[in-house]
């Protein structure tokens, strides 16, 4: 990686495969183009061993699921027009903690206001509200139907 690529500002987008996270990715792409930033798409798959039935790792793994979710989200958002400098980061762990860490050194963190879980009537989900309070950069929270 050249110094120019290392020094280039980046926008981090948290995606979970939900419609709102795809909208957040669309909006982040436009912002990255306007601001001259690279784009990093982060998917965090949370896996609780205590709640999950035993599944052989050659059949399913949280890392494979994170990679699949990321690939599908990027495909849906960009189709064949994937930005050449797009960084895709699949992670396994606690979404809030890992997205806060991913925000370190970023120009902006972009997420949807609601993910896959929780109560649809709430204005903000627990992940997005915690990120807004603790991220290391400004956070853009995309709401359903916002023009991108």
TrEMBL record:
Taxonomic superkingdom: Bacteria
Matches recorded under Gene3D superfamilies: HUPs
In terms of InterPro entries, this protein maps to: Rossmann-like_a/b/a_fold, Universal_stress_UspA, USP_A, UspA
Domain (UspA) spans 8-143
Stated family = Belongs to the universal stress protein A family.
Q: What is this protein called?
A: Universal stress protein
Give the species this sequence originates from. Arthrobacter gengyunqii
What phylogenetic lineage does the species belong to?
Bacteria, Bacillati, Actinomycetota, Actinomycetes, Micrococcales
């Amino acid at each position: 990686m050249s110094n120019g690529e290392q020094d280039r500002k980046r926008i981090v987008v948290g995606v979970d495969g939900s419609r709102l996270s795809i909208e957040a990715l669309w909006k982040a792409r436009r912002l990255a183009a306007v601001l001259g930033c690279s784009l990093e798409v982060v998917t965090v798959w949370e896996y609780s061993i205590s709640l999950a039935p035993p599944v052989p790792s050659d059949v399913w793994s949280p890392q494979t699921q994170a990679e699949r979710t990321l690939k599908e989200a990027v495909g849906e958002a960009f189709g064949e027009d994937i930005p050449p400098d797009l960084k895709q980061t699949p992670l396994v762990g606690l979404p809030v903690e890992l997205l806060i860490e991913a925000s370190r050194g970023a120009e902006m963190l972009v997420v949807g206001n609601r993910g896959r879980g929780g109560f649809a009537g709430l204005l903000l989900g627990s992940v997005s509200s915690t990120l807004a309070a603790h991220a290391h950069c400004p956070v853009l929270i995309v709401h359903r139907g916002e023009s991108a």
